[in-house]
Specification:
2 domains, two-stranded antiparallel ribbon, transmembrane helix, transmembrane, UPF0014_fam
């Protein structure tokens, strides 16, 4: 089965459905029509631009340009993690904890996947590296953002209990151990749910895309299974790193709880 190529007219027909949804929002006074149209326009521009960039990268396989693209993706993911925090860390820590956690988890899992599992030659082939990195970063970003947000919100709400444990002689590690477990559990819930419902409730995006492109369904299922396993590893490692770094930052060298290192994003906006 060959791939059916889409024309601009085909995409315009699909865009009409978004316009109808915006009109329905306006008629029902839902108030989301403007955000919906902006999001649709933004995704159109972003995807068309990345399509042009990837076309150029695929044509030359330049490792420096591929590395630059990977770092750009990491930088944007770090900003997204930062913006999803209600109580973010002040200064460079707010951005650095999320970006560093995603770097060590996504990039290490990606390198192992390309060299030991898929065995691509050379390992930085952009046709494999960029899509795999995008899926790893996207899922790790969600896990780290949820875990960090749970940690900082929980530390703020349970500050009395944490300080009581410190006064009773506990270490900073013991004082925040239960909250750290809750944060990690929250960060892993999305990928656990995705694995549990894959194939029963929905067909994941990678498998669907390969089937639409003409790949045999069993091969598409194998690749999807591979990605779910490596994504779960990357999300887990990223969440662990983010929560450990974040929880350590909440205490100083004298093991005092330092909530003054957090900034309430909602209050800043108000």
């Amino acid at each position: 089965m060959s791939l059916v190529l889409l024309t601009p007219f085909d995409l315009a027909l699909a865009a009409v459905l978004v316009l109808l949804l915006a009109a329905m929002s306006w008629y029902l006074h839902l108030g989301v029509e403007r955000r919906l149209l902006i999001a649709a326009a933004r995704s159109t521009v972003q995807l068309m631009l990345v399509g042009l960039v990837l076309k150029a990268l695929f044509a030359q396989t330049n490792p420096w340009l591929i590395g630059l693209m990977a770092l750009f993706m990491l930088a944007v993911a770090g900003i997204e993690v930062l913006q999803r925090q209600k109580r973010r860390f002040r200064g460079p820590w707010g951005y650095g904890i999320g970006a560093f956690s995603m770097f060590i988890s996504s990039f290490s899992v990606l390198f192992l996947t390309l060299t030991l599992i898929i065995r691509v030659e050379p390992w930085y082939q952009p046709q494999y590296l960029i899509p795999l990195l995008g899926m790893l970063l996207g899922n790790t970003m969600s896990g780290a953002a949820i875990a960090l947000d749970t940690l900082t919100r929980g530390a703020w709400d349970a500050r009395g209990r944490i300080e009581a444990r410190l006064l009773a002689g506990g270490t900073w590690d013991q004082a925040i151990a239960s909250l750290r477990r809750d944060s990690l559990r929250a960060g892993l819930i999305p990928i656990v749910n995705a694995m549990a419902t894959a194939g029963l409730v929905s067909l994941p995006g990678m498998m669907t895309g390969q089937i639409l492109a003409g790949s045999p369904p069993m091969e598409a299922a194998k690749y999807q299974l591979l990605m779910m396993f490596v994504i779960s590893a990357g999300t887990g490692l990223g969440s662990v790193a983010a929560v450990w770094l974040g929880s350590r930052r909440l205490f100083d060298e004298r093991e005092r709880l330092r909530l003054d290192r957090l900034r309430d994003q909602g209050r800043d906006r108000g």
